[in-house]
Fold this protein.
Amino acid sequence: MFQPLGFEQRSIITSLGRIVYYTNTGSLWQHDVTAKGERETLVFLHGFGGGSSAYEWSKVYPAFASDYRILAPDLLGWGRSEHLGRNYQIEDYLTTIQEFLQQTCINPVTVIASSLTAAIIIRVAIAHPNLFKSLILTTPAGLSDFGEDYSRSFFAQLASVPIVDRLLYSTGVATDNGIRTFLEQRQFAQPSRVYQEIVDAYLESAQQPNAEYTALSFVRGDLCFDLSLYIQQLTTPTAIIWGEKSQFTGPEIGRRLADLNPQAIRVFQHLEDVGLTPQLELPAVTIGLIRQFLPLLD
C-alpha cells in the first residue's frame, strides 16, 4: 500500500488485534534525536468505507512531518491492520483507539480524524480526556444523529441480507469500477479530482482478506450512533471542517452538532464545493486550515 517518502511502517498489539501505523521516524525528518523526543504528536485517523485506510490522510500528514511526530494508523479491520473474521461494533473502535493512543503517546495529543471515526473519537475524548490536547475533525457525524436511523435506509437493509451482502461487496465495492464510481458520485464533490492512485489505494485495502467484515458492518449501520446524545459532554478544544457537498450528512447537521457545545467546539469551518473528505479532495486547503487551527486550540 502507499507509504509516503520518509515514513516507516510499525505496529502495536491491541486487545483485539494488531494495528499497523505509519510514522516519520526516517532520517529525512529526524536530524536531531533530542528534538525528535520533544516534538508534539499529531495522530491522523481515517474514516470508514469500502477500502478505507491511512492513505486517506497521506496527502496531508507529510506537510507536518518536519515539526511534529506523526502517527497515522490503519484502524482495526482496515488497510494493513488485522482483519477479524466477524462483525464489528462501536465498542471495538472505542477500545482499540484508546489502546493505540495509550501505547504510542506519553503526553496528550492532537487527533485529526474523519467522518464516523471523528464522531467516535469524540466519545473516546469524553471518556478519556487526559489523552487529548485538541481535536480537528472533518465531518464528524454518527450517521444516526438527532434521531435519524441510518440502519433503516435501503442500502443498509440490502447489506443486511445474507449472501446478498457478500455479493454486494465483491461486485459493487471491491472492484476498480466500484471504488471509482463511489468516489466520483458519492464521496467527492468534483469527479475530476479523483485520480488513479486514490482508486488503487482504496482497492488494495478493500481486497485484503476479511476486509468485507468491517465494510459491511459499517454499511449495515452497526457502527452508527446518535452523536447529539454525547457531544455536549466534550471538553477537549475542537475545530470542525465540514464539506458543503457531503452527501451523507450536510453542513446543517454539523452546525446543529456544533451549536450543542460552543464551549468545546471553538471553530466550525464550512467548505464550499467539497464532499466528505476534503483531505483527499483539496489536501492543500486542508493543510492550511489545520495549520490555522492548531494555535487556536492551545
Q: What stands out?
A: DSSP finds eleven helices and eight strands in the chain. The two ends are 34 Å apart (CA to CA).
